[in-house]
Design a protein that fits this description.
By secondary structure, this protein is mostly helical. The protein has 7 helices and 2 strands, in the order αβααβαααα. The chain has 2 domains: 1-85, no CATH class; 86-141, no CATH class. The protein has helices spanning 2-9, 24-27, 31-35, 66-69, 87-95, 99-102, 107-139, and strands at 16-20, 51-55. It has a two-stranded parallel ribbon with strand order 1-2. The longest helix is centred in the C-terminal third of the chain and has 33 residues, at 107-139. 6% of the residues are buried.
């Protein structure tokens, strides 16, 4: 998990990264020491100026022990607005419907199909936001 995570964020140039993960209260323990350990390739070490903020998505937080609630809650975090951290999970509702079809595909076809469905979900979200913004300007010119 550490290797996959650092591979996805290293080189992004971001100074602050917010992570939403179901078990971040356990996975995040000594995360920076594991990432910057000698066993991790030098190319995956995080720059010293990069800060990581680790949170548990709101839907998953009640299942955790009370000592996890405040430190890992989006409600007490600066810079995240009113997010719930569940955005990644919402794509599963769309992808679950195609699971039986893509399970029979080869790796390339599966990847392309999943990519198409995720792109459609993003397009639909953008279209709905644009429509909402347009209506907002009509109502409040």
């Amino acid at each position: 998990m550490d290797y996959v995570f650092t591979s996805s964020i290293v080189g992004s140039g971001m100074q602050s990264i917010v992570v939403s993960y179901n078990i971040t209260c356990q996975w995040g323990i000594k995360l920076l020491s594991r990432i910057n350990a000698p066993s991790m390739p030098d190319s995956l070490h995080l720059p010293a100026l990069t800060s990581l903020d680790l949170f548990v998505p709101k839907f998953h937080l009640p299942a955790h022990t009370p000592k996890c609630h405040a430190p890992f809650s989006f409600n007490f975090a600066c810079g995240v607005g009113r997010t719930d951290g569940e955005g990644v999970e919402r794509n599963w509702s769309i992808l679950n419907g195609i699971a039986s079809s893509v399970s029979m595909m080869g790796p390339g076809g599966r990847w392309d199909t999943i990519d198409d469905f995720c792109n459609f979900a993003n397009w639909r979200k953008t279209a709905i936001l644009r429509m909402s913004l347009h209506l907002l300007f009509i109502i409040y010119p």
